[in-house]
Amino acid sequence: MNETLVTVVGNVATEPEFREAANGAASSRFRLAASVRRWDRAKEEWTDAYTSFYTVWAWRALAVNVAASLGVGEPVVVQGKLRIREEEREGKRWLSADIDAVSVGHDLSRGTSVFRRVSQARPLLTDPVRPASAPAEAPAPAIPDRESAAAGTEVPPF
Q1: CB atoms < 10 A from the CB of 29, how many?
Q2: What residue spans carry the region label Disordered (predicted)?
Q3: Distance CA 156, CA 158 (A)
Q4: Which domains, ranges and CATH numbers included, belong to the chain?
Q5: Among 3, 26, 30, which residue's Cα sits nearest to residue 17?
Q6: What is the pLDDT of residues 60-100, one digit of tens each?
């Protein structure tokens, strides 16, 4: 259990790429840019010092929600397991930092967000656990679709 857990605050640098394997397993990946900001005393303003890039991987339900919720440039907080990968491409050695995400969310210190709970199955109207007067949860989107979610358009369930 010697996993390196990290929390990284940054901006979504690429559109989340959603894939579904033949067995139905969902995965999503995007690049995260985390810039270090420093106070420049001479200019009396904040400036970017350098930017680190991470490839964020999400799996299963988190992958579906990431693809449906995130867009390029949005501020996010990512928590997960850090993996440093070493590869060789065209005779050159490359290192990449990947994060296997456990949790991803909008950074609310830089804006607002609206949370919409999704579920895999719709509850029955006569569900004994939930009173008939209680509102049902929204169904999960079949294909992640940010625009229809933002517009409030209903997307058919899985």
Answers
A1: 20
A2: 126-158
A3: 7
A4: 5-113 (2.40.50.140), 116-158 (no CATH)
A5: 30
A6: 999 999 999 999 999 999 999 999 999 998 999 999 999 99
